[in-house]
Design brief:
This protein is an alpha/beta fold and about 350 residues long. It has 13 helices and 10 strands. Keywords: 2Fe-2S, 4Fe-4S, Biotin biosynthesis, Iron, Iron-sulfur, Metal-binding, S-adenosyl-L-methionine, Transferase.
Length: about 350
C-alpha cells in the first residue's frame, strides 16, 4: 500500500467517523477530499455512502418542481436563463392559474413525489403574489394534505414568510449558489447577504429552510468549501446540489468545466458536511453525471423528478427505473425523511416560530 493510499484511508475514516457524530469536517479535510484523484472516486463514494445509509437507509425522496412564473426576471444572475437580458430560448409566461398548479402537483404526487416545489421568477414577490401562492398552497393541501409544499419566490419582505407559513407552506427554498467571496462574479443586482437574510427570515417564521448551491461556474475548491460551510452555519433541512446547465444566451453559456468524478466528489463533500440533512441531487445531474447518476444515489438521498424550471430532465419513468435498478426505494409520504433527532429539532423550530423574532435574525 502506498503512502498516498494510507493517507486517503485515514482521511476517509476520519470524515466518516466525524459525520456519524454530526461533526463538521475541518477546512483542510474538506479541501483534501476535493483534491483526491479520479482513480480514488469510488473509495470516496463508498465512504460517504456509509454516512448516507446510516441516516437515510436506501430511501430516495422524490421532489417535483412547478414553475408558476417563467422568464422576464429583473435580476442579472449570470447562470440563469430567466435573467435580465437573457437570449436563451425559453418559455416566458406570467402566473399560471391556481387550478393548473394544483393539478400538476397532484400528478406529481401520483408519480411518487413527496414534496412539491412552487417556483416563480423575479427578484421577490409582491403581497399580491404571496396571496396567489398562498391560495395555491391551500389548493394543493386540500387535495393531498400529507404532501410537503416548498415555496421559492426570491427575496422576501418582512411578514411574507409568516403569511406563507400560515397558508400551510412547509418550506422555503433560497439557494446561496456560491461562496460569498465569489458572489459578485455571478450576480450584481443583489448580494450574498440578501440571500442569507431571506433564508433566516423564512426559518424564523417556521418554514423549513432549503438552501444549496450551483457548481460549474468557475469556482475553486476553496469556493466549494466556503459555500458548503456557509450553508452549514445556516442549518438548512434540505440542501439541493445543482450543476450548471450552460444556456446559450447567458454569460455562463460556454462553461463546461465539470466531469462526473468532480460532481461525485462535490456530492460526497456535501454528505460529510450535512450528514443528517436531505441532500438533493438537483439541476444538471443528467448532463454532468451522465452514466454515473446511479452512483450519486449513494450520496444524495433525494432527487428532482422530471423537468426543471426551464430545461428538460429525464422522464419520470426513467428516474424511477434508475432508483430501482440501483437498489434503492422511493420514500413514502408516510415516512419521515429526516432522522429522529433532526426531525425533532425541525418540529421545535416550527413551534417556536412567531415569537417576535425579526425576519433577519
Amino acid at each position: 500500500m502506498t503512502s498516498f493510499s494510507a493517507t486517503l484511508d485515514d482521511l476517509l475514516s476520519t470524515l466518516v467517523s466525524g459525520a456519524l457524530q454530526r461533526r463538521l469536517p475541518t477546512r483542510d479535510q474538506a479541501l483534501a477530499l476535493l483534491a483526491t484523484s479520479d482513480d480514488d472516486v469510488l473509495d470516496v463514494v463508498a465512504a460517504a455512502s456509509r454516512v448516507r445509509r446510516a441516516f437515510f437507509g436506501r430511501r430516495v425522496k422524490l421532489n417535483y418542481l412547478v414553475n408558476m412564473k417563467s422568464g422576464l426576471c429583473p435580476e442579472d444572475c449570470f447562470y440563469c436563463s430567466q435573467r435580465l437580458g437573457s437570449e436563451a430560448g425559453i418559455l416566458k409566461y406570467s402566473w399560471i392559474a391556481t387550478e393548473e398548479a394544483a393539478g400538476l402537483a397532484a400528478k406529481a404526487v401520483e408519480a411518487g413525489a413527496k414534496r412539491v416545489c412552487l417556483v416563480a421568477s423575479g427578484r421577490g414577490p409582491s403581497d399580491r403574489d404571496v396571496a396567489r401562492v398562498a391560495d395555491t398552497v391551500a389548493a394543493i393541501k386540500d387535495g393531498t394534505p400529507d404532501v410537503e409544499v416548498c415555496v421559492c419566490l426570491g427575496l422576501l419582505k418582512d411578514g411574507q414568510a409568516a403569511r406563507l407559513a400560515a397558508a400551510g407552506a412547509d418550506a422555503y427554498s433560497h439557494n446561496l449558489n456560491t461562496a460569498e467571496e465569489k458572489y459578485a462574479d455571478i450576480c450584481t443586482t443583489h448580494t450574498f447577504a440578501d440571500r442569507v437574510d431571506t433564508l433566516r427570515g423564512a426559518s424564523a417564521a417556521g418554514l423549513s429552510p432549503c438552501s444549496g448551491a450551483i457548481f460549474g461556474m468557475g469556482e475553486s475548491d476553496e469556493d466549494v468549501v466556503s459555500v458548503a460551510f456557509a450553508l452549514r452555519e445556516l442549518d438548512p433541512d434540505s440542501v439541493p446540489v445543482n450543476f450548471l446547465i450552460p444556456f446559450e444566451g447567458t454569460p455562463l453559456g460556454d462553461r463546461w468545466d465539470l466531469t462526473p468524478a468532480r460532481c461525485l466528489r462535490i456530492l460526497a463533500l456535501f454528505r460529510f458536511v450535512f450528514p443528517d440533512v436531505e441532500v438533493r441531487l438537483a439541476g444538471g445531474r443528467e448532463i454532468h453525471l451522465r452514466a454515473l447518476q446511479p452512483l450519486a444515489l449513494h450520496l444524495a438521498n433525494a432527487v428532482f423528478l422530471g423537468d426543471y424550471l426551464t430545461s428538460e430532465g429525464a422522464p419520470g419513468s426513467a428516474d424511477l427505473a434508475m432508483i430501482a435498478d440501483a437498489g434503492f426505494t422511493v420514500e413514502g409520504r408516510d415516512e419521515t425523511t429526516l432522522p429522529t433527532v433532526r426531525a425533532e429539532q425541525v418540529a421545535v423550530r416550527r413551534r417556536g416560530a412567531g415569537t417576535g423574532l425579526p425576519a433577519n435574525t
